[in-house]
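Researcher: Please generate the 3D structure of the following complex. Treat every line as part of one assembly.
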Amino acid sequence: MGYNCVVCVKQVPDTKRITGEAMTEEGTVNRAALPAVFNPEDLYALEQALAVRDAHGGTVTLLTMGLPAASEVLRDGLYRGADRAILVTDRRAAASDTLATSYILSCAVKKLDPDIVFCGRQAIDGDTAQVGPQLAEKLDMTQITYLEELISLEDKTIRIRRNVGNGYEVVQAELPVLVTVMETANEPRPPAAKKMMKFKKAFSPAEVAGKAEHLLEGDYENYTAELKAAEVDKYCGKLQGKGLLIEQWNLDDIEADLTWCGMKGSPTKVHKIQSVVLTGGQHKQIEPTDEGVATLVAELIEEHTIG
Amino acid sequence: MIEVNRQGEVWVFAEAEDGKLSDVPLELMSKGKSLAEKLSVPLAAVLPGKGVRPLADKLVAHGADKVYLVEDDKLSHYQTSGYAKVVCGLISEHKPQVVMYGATPIGRDLAPSVASAMKCGLTADCTDLQIGDHTEPVSKTEHKNLLFQIRPAFGGNIIATIVNYDRWPQMATVREGVMPMTEPDESRKGEIIDCTAKLDGLTLPLEIIESHRREKAVNLKAARIIVAGGAGVGSRENFKLIWDLAGCLGAEVGGSRAAVDLGYVNSDHQVGQTGTTVRPALYIACGISGAVQHRAGMAESAKIIAINTDADAPIFGVAHYGIVGDLNEVLPKMIKAVRTGAKG
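Model: Done. Output below.
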C-alpha cells in the first residue's frame, strides 16, 4: 500500500556562514545579509519520505511556512523528487514563535490528512527542536523523535530506531505518526538534473506577482491593479496546467484561528538581543620553545592547577 | 494555559531513567532554589516514574521544598504521551509560575508537547535563567519579576533573552552542565506529595521493542583537567599526543565537533554546543580554532591554554595562555615539562 507523507521544511539563514557583515550596528543579525538555505536536517526528513514512497508507493508533499522567497526550498525539494509543494504565506503569520508556527502548520497538515509527517529534528537558526513535537500534539498524532533508522513499515505499523542520546530504542506504533529525523538517518539524494530543468520554472503565485515584470508579456507597467492580478492569475493557471505551480495557502485557506497566529498567538517575546563579542587579546603569550612551555608548566604546578 | 499566578511555585522536571536521576534536574535544583528565593515561593520537583520514590529524598537534599511524586505502571519507561499528560495535569492543578526541564533528549521531547497542550511559551536550551522586569515596547506595560530565559541563537552568534508574560507557566529547557550542581544537604526536610497519574483510560501509543543505553565512556563534566584536540591535530595518529599529555596530567580527553566528525576521537568526548558543556580547572585546547559552538561548551573553564598555528584563531579570544605554534612540537615539550616537573 502507498503512504501519503508530508515533509515540513524551513528556509533558514545559513548561520554557519555568519560574518561581521551579517551583524547590524545594534548587534543583531541582519537576516537579509545571510544566504538562505534549505534547513540541513530537513533534507534528511525529505530523503526519508522519498525512500518510503520509493519502497511502498504513495506521495511526498512538501510544506513550508514563510515569505514568498521560501518557494526556493520547495523548488529544491521538487528537484530532489517531491510530488507536490505547498507554501503557507501570510503577513498575519509574521513573528510567530514555535507555538504559533506549529498551530499554523497543523491547520495546513489537517487538510492533507497524511499517514506520516516527517520533520527535521531542528532548524539551524533557532536550534529549538520544538515545532515537530508541538505539531504532533496539535494533530494528536503519535510523536516519535530522533529517527535514526526506519526499520519497517507494514500495513499500518511502523517500526523505528530512535537515538536517545546515551543509546537507542526500537519503538513500534500505529499510523498516523509524526517523526523527527536525525542527520545520521540517511544520505540525502542530490537534485536530479532532469527535474531541475523542469521545476526551475515552477513558481508560487506570490513569486509570479513579485516578478511579474519579467514573467508577463505586454505593457505590464501601465496595467491597473485588477488587470495585473488577472494577468498573474492567468499565468498561474498556465503553470498549473504544466504541473509547475507551487501551491500557495494563506491563513484563511487553512481555516486558521487568528487568535493563535503571529505575534498574538506567540507567548514568548524577545526582551533583549546581544551579539556575542569576543574579548580578544587578553591572554598571556607563551613562546613555543622548551623554555616557554617549561615556565608555563612550572607556573601551573606552583599554583596547584596541575600536579 | 494558566493565568499569571504570582504565588505559583518554581518547578523542576526530575528526569529519571532506570531508577536513577539524571544530572540535569540536580543541576537545576540549585538554580531553581535561587529563583524561588527571589520570588519568595517554594521550589518543587515533579517526579513521575515507577519505583522512583527513593529518589525523592535526593531531590529534597538538593533543595526541593516539595516533591510531586507520581508512581504508575504506565510511567515505567519514558514515552511522550503518558509523561506529558501527567505534567499537564499537575500544572493545571497547582499552577506553577516556572517549569524547568533539562535540555536532554527526553526534556526536549517532553517540554514542547506540554507547551503545546498548555498553549504556553517555551524557550529551548537556555544557558542562564534570571528574574527581572520587562516593559512591553508599545504599550509600556510593565511586568515585574519575570523569568528571563537566556539562550544563544543563530548558531551561537547572538544571545537572546526571552520572556513570557501572559500565558503561563514560564517554561524553559536548560542545557546540561551549564548550572553548577551544589553539594546535597542530607539533613534538609521536604514534603513528598503522592499524586495519582490519572492515566486509566490511556493506551500508550508506543510499543518499546528494545532499549539500549550505556554510560558514556568518559565523564567530562567531572574532569578537573581536559586536554582537547580539534581538526588542527591532523590525524587520528597525531591525536595520540593528546592522549599522552592527558595521561601524564591525569586528565580526560576532549574533542571539538570537527575532531569527532573526522574520526579522531569518538563522540563521547565531544565538547561544545552539541556535546558536553565543561568547566574544568584547566582546559588545554590543541588545534581547535574555536568556533562559537565549541567556545559555548568550554569558555567557563577556570584556566584555558590554547595551542594553535593560526595566531588569529578565535580560540585565543577566550584563552588565558596562548601558544602560537605547531602542536606536534609544542605537545612533546609540554609532556616533557610535566614529567620533569612532577618528578621535581
